[in-house]
Amino acid sequence: MTNRIETACRERGIKLTGQRKLIAEVLSGSRGHPDVPELHRRVTEHNPRISLSTVYRTLKRLEQAGILERHTFLDGRDRYEDAGKKHHDRLIDMVTGKVIEFSSPEIERLQSEIASDLGFRLVGHRLELYGEPLDQASSSSAPDHPRKPR
């Protein structure tokens, strides 16, 4: 079965080698926002011969083609997600590194209202909230990437 990333590659004329196809499959099946080392770990579970540099080059190519979006959160790691996803904001769990996506019509309205009040037409934004769980037990045990202690 062809995933959205593979389809987007074909539409843009990007050659899909076996390694690129596997990276696209693993990335399409990923939950959350994996960084390169995590994606490489997942890919090498299927093919241990794929190098870390191949993963980096593939992600860079997919980002340049507008297929993926790269996000850098406070932990400094570049993480990737499908560029075709509907707009959403993020809450990053500072204990586990888990990225929680959410949408809020009220926040969208407020941002547009603030821009207008300041004499601007809002053409884009990125909202990232950083927090720690009020109840540590409610924090997911399967983080995107654990945060290193300070």
List the helices and strands and how they pair.
Elements: H1 4-11, H2 18-28, H3 36-44, H4 52-64, E1 68-72, E2 78-82, E3 89-93, E4 99-102, H5 105-117, E5 128-131
Parallel strand pairs: 3-5
Antiparallel strand pairs: 1-2, 3-4
Brief digest:
By secondary structure, the protein is α+β, with helices and mostly antiparallel strands. It is globular.
Characterization of the model:
- The protein has 150 residues and is an alpha+beta fold.
- The protein folds into two domains: 79 residues, Orthogonal Bundle (Arc Repressor Mutant, subunit A); 50 residues, Dna Ligase, domain 1 (2-Layer Sandwich), CATH 3.30.1490.190.
- Helix content is 36%, strand content 15%.
- The protein is built from five helices and five strands, in the order ααααββββαβ.
- It has a three-stranded mixed sheet, with no helix packed on it. A two-stranded antiparallel ribbon has the order 1-2.
- Helix 3 crosses helix 4.
- The relative contact order is 0.14.
* Mean of residue pLDDT values: 85
Kindly provide the radius of gyration, computed on alpha-carbon positions and rounded to a whole number of angstroms. 17 Å
**How many independent structural domains?**
2
| Distance separating the two termini | 43 Å
Write down how many β-strands occur, each being a DSSP E stretch of 2 or more residues.
5
